Structure to design on (312 residues):
């Protein structure tokens, strides 16, 4: 059986949603798969209905452990099972590991990743085989509706520690940037409600200093929402801040001062109600998201497990 370990945390998180989505795809394609939770009865809210196991691992199972849980990897390293890792962010790879240890000490056989950046880091540092699993965006939730756009700036609250400082700079420059534009922190929302706010936002602010796939930026781009902020190091392959293929407003990661300068022309246009000058950026953003389909995700995931479910 394929078991995806998922923490017992009632939190709206793209990473945990990805685990449930993988299991959902696998069960629909005939694989014996389930989410693995620790505490009996725990179910993560707002997720697909999938099989769930509670603290049950049997000989011969394959357990998939997220990158931020080396403690779980260590706990089950001697079990008569196979162990895979799934890495959705690069920053936790070595932040959570003990000194002088890496995944090879826990007998991790191979790793699934959502971006080449993460894959290269794992392969280069640990010499563990990596496999890129495409990520899909939900077309029914993330789409452009120009008529619904409002003077909103949205951002993820738990990744927005720099936002108050950015707002202070902008308000000192022009109070309308804060008083006439609504800044919306996104926190503890269902994906339906989250997507509705993204579709209506003029700007999605990405001030996270570390990301893997920058999936929140891709969701915003698909909605025709202008992404502004950092590439978060892991998003440099997808986010382009200049040139013919510009799809976002980018500054050096962490530099919220330069971000304030870069935002000013866009904020002026939002206040004037004319974003025509930004249409090329918006359309480049939509184009960037085109490969991220449910079909591509399903194909890559099913191909991976067809190749590695029975082989050791």
């Amino acid at each position: 059986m394929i078991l995806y370990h998922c923490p017992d945390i009632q939190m709206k998180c793209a990473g945990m949603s990805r685990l449930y989505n993988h299991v959902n795809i696998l069960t629909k394609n005939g694989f014996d798969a389930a989410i693995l939770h620790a505490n009996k009865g725990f179910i993560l809210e707002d997720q697909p209905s999938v099989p769930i196991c509670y603290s049950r691992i049997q000989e011969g199972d394959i357990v998939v452990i997220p990158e931020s849980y080396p403690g779980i990897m260590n706990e089950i390293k001697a079990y008569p099972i196979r162990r895979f890792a799934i890495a959705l962010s690069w920053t936790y790879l070595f932040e959570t590991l003990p000194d002088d240890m890496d995944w090879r000490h826990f007998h991790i056989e191979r790793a699934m990743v959502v971006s080449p950046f993460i894959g290269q880091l794992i392969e280069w540092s640990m010499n563990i085989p990596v496999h890129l699993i495409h990520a899909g965006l939900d077309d029914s939730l993330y789409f452009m509706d120009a008529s619904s756009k409002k003077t909103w700036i949205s951002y993820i609250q738990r990744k927005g520690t720099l936002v108050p400082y950015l707002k202070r700079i902008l308000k000192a420059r022009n109070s309308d940037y804060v008083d006439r534009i609504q800044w919306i922190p996104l926190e503890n929302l269902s994906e339906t409600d989250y997507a509705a706010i993204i579709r209506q936002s003029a700007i999605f602010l990405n001030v996270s200093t570390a990301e893997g796939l920058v999936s929140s930026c891709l969701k915003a781009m698909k909605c025709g929402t202008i992404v502004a902020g950092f590439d978060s190091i892991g998003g440099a392959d997808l986010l382009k801040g200049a040139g013919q293929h510009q799809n976002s407003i980018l500054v050096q990661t962490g530099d919220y001062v330069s971000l304030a300068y870069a935002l000013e022309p866009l904020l002026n246009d939002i206040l004037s109600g004319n974003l025509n000058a930004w249409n090329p950026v918006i359309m480049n953003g939509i184009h960037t998201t085109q490969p991220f389909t449910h079909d591509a995700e399903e194909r890559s995931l099913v191909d991976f497990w067809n190749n590695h479910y029975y082989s050791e």
Observations:
- The chain has a mean pLDDT of 94.
- The two ends are 14 Å apart (CA to CA).
- The domain at 2-135+293-308 is CATH 3.40.50.2000 (Rossmann fold).
- Residues 18 and 213 are 12 Å apart (CA to CA).
